[in-house]
Amino acid sequence: MKRDIILIMEGGTIQGVFSSGVMTAFQKHNIRPRIHSIYAVSSGAHNAAYFLSGNSEVGQEIYYDYLLRRHSFLKHLSAKVIIKKILGLFFLGKSFDVIDLEYIRDLEINIIPLNLERIKNTPIKFYVRVFDPKTRKNLFVDAREHTIERLLQSSKVPPYAYTKHDTGYIDGGVMPCRDFLTKVVKKNTDKTIIYIFNDKKTIKKVTKQILPDLIDVIFKTRFLGLRYGLKHLFNIYSYTYVSSLKDQKHTHVLYDETGNSKREKNKAKIYSAYKLGYAKGEAMLKELNIIK
């Protein structure tokens, strides 16, 4: 069977529950023999790893029960704590450390373990997008080797995330870019590409969020340096948008429409995004005549 499908999976923290639903549908209908490669970032990378591991169906449980109910994900942030962390960042250069990636490491090794041997030996190419803070460039790194470390690198968003050791690379989503479009979509016109957004990215939505995004840029600039901040400002609209994929005839787009936020805590909304992802995944397979 010809491996003619490339999957691209964006991130979005809790919004990633949508793409975990999509991947569960793909797993159920066993499209692995058709998949040539997967390119992913942040929560999308974790979902891709569970798919390659053969247990995508744990996604709904992970996002609510393990990232929210059993883990202090962005909880306990009173006004006093927030002010203290902001002062610590600007005067001492201290990280906020409100996301514990060591917990994610334990989750994927011991609590709901990934089958790392299966991922290592898969014929499906698996790349995660990371950002090199030294060169201020995005890279695609092979995640079949050193999978857990690659997943943590692709999820470490400074100054918010905590790890015991410096991961070197950080989340490939910290710098707005069109890498998936320019380096994957446009260079693989002989493949069928399924592009999965966990949120419908539009210019209007980016503009609406411009103020909190600028505050975020200020925080990251203090932690990563002025050259990073200036590059981010010039790139602030440099995303791959749903509209920018319309002319790519070999590309099919899936995105969440439930309105989940990156820090969503409503159980019903999280579960509905997972179910929508599953339904859209099956619908896409029918559209592509992979299933009937």
Features:
alpha/beta; globular; 292 residues; 9 strands; seven-stranded mixed beta sheet; 14% strand
Contiguous low-pLDDT stretches (5 residues minimum) are none
CA-atom Rg in angstroms: 18 Å
Structural class: alpha/beta
The count of β-strands is 9
Report the average pLDDT across residues. Answer: 94
Q: Give the biggest sheet.
A: 7 strands, mixed
Strand percent estimate: 5-15%
Helix content: 40-55%
Count the helices. How many? 12
**Apparent shape:** globular
The string of secondary-structure elements, in order, is EHEHHHEHHEEHEEHEHHHEH
Distance separating the two termini? 18 Å
Descriptive account of the structure:
It is a single chain. With 292 residues, the protein is an alpha/beta fold. It is built from 12 helices and 9 strands. Strands 1, 2, 4, 5, 7, 8 and 9 form a 7-stranded mixed sheet that branches. It has a two-stranded parallel ribbon with strand order 3-6. Strand 4 and strand 5 form a beta hairpin. The longest helix is centred in the C-terminal third of the chain and has 21 residues, at 267-287. 40% of the residues are buried. The model has no long low-confidence stretch (mean pLDDT 94).
Structure at a glance:
The chain is of the alpha/beta class and 292 residues long.
Topology:
Blueprint: E1 5-9, H1 17-28, E2 35-40, H2 43-53, H3 59-69, H4 79-92, E3 99-100, H5 101-111, H6 116-121, E4 125-132, E5 137-142, H7 147-153, E6 161-162, E7 170-171, H8 179-185, E8 192-197, H9 203-208, H10 210-224, H11 226-234, E9 251-255, H12 267-287
Parallel strand pairs: 1-2, 1-8, 2-4, 3-6, 8-9
Antiparallel strand pairs: 4-5, 4-7
